TrEMBL record:
Signal peptide: none annotated. It comes from the Bacteria. Keywords: Membrane, Transmembrane, Transmembrane helix. The keyword Oxidoreductase does not apply. The chain crosses the membrane at residues 41-58, 70-87, 93-112, 119-138, 144-166, 178-198, 204-222, 234-257, 269-289, 301-319, 331-351. This is Uncharacterized protein. It comes from Nitrospira defluvii.
Amino acid sequence: MVVRHPHRLPLLALGMLALLTGLWAGLSRLGWDVSLPRPGFSSLHGPLMVSGFLGTLIGLERAVALGRPWAYAAPLLTGLGAVGLIVGVPLLAAQLLMLAGSLVLVAIFAAIIRRHPALYAFTMGGGAIVWALGNLLWCLGWPVFLVVFWWAAFLVVTIAGERLELARLQQVSGAAQAMFLLLLGILLTGLLLLGWSFDGGVRLFGLGLAGLALWLGRHDIARRTVKQTGLTRFIAICLLTGYVWLGISGLSAMWFGGMPVGPQYDATLHAFFIGFVFAMIFAHAPIIFPAVLGARMTYRPLFYAHVVLLQITLVVRLLGDAMGWSAGRQVGGLLNAVTLLLFLGNTVSALRSPPAQAGRVQTRAS
């Protein structure tokens, strides 16, 4: 396969390295006997998966969309921060790299807002600010079990902003937009409460997640496009299943409240990060990867394999959490990792060299 933009491959590779290493660390956290490079490495699972992988991927996609050379500093810095975590540089050095990358993403959205001062752009820019604040708190010594909610807010606000952009096609009413802003306010208020009342902050945060799940399920164009065929239907199914998991995560947070460790904490976070976030990645990958690499991607029904397996393996994991069934949690978590590897394999194998006179590739999912 020949790609049109090979200079972007190293940046994408940094994100993939963070993903694979984060999965490796995650298996250790689940209790699997895997060799690690040093003691405490498993604690890097969250930072590698969120700021290392997802932050780098979002930064790269936004740099491509903006089209300014300086914007590529965002994925470069977060990717280098992930490498720093992996090889064992002083923790603060890696944290500062990731903070710097998130600040560049804020600057990217500032440039986007100047071009398009619309609600969706302000929303995504707000998500980038939340990520930067979360990284700052991490640098200041806040524990990951608190910071992870700031990282989660970054992702859900960014994704909601992207979907809000497309929801314009359905002419979302002013009342619906006001409700959207109210739900964002609830979510962010929960974040601000975390430092004073962890339990209350998590419950309020969960209310915001559950509300956004309902809002997105009601107003996303996927409700209409799911009736179509081929890739369009596949994307819609991924989105709608992701909103279900977002709602489950929100309800779990509301029910269990602040739990720094344990099966309830695992269920709340992984319903969000695996069920919701990776469903969004599955949906957007056929659009984003070709846009970033300048290649084509051939849609195949085989893509449903990693979508279905994600649902099954996550249900097994969460049943293990709910029933105190450690084997179910461990096996479900292992199969979650296998599913993500299958997704990468399906995605890479579907990429094709671009035609000689290919037109510009869009970076938005339908």
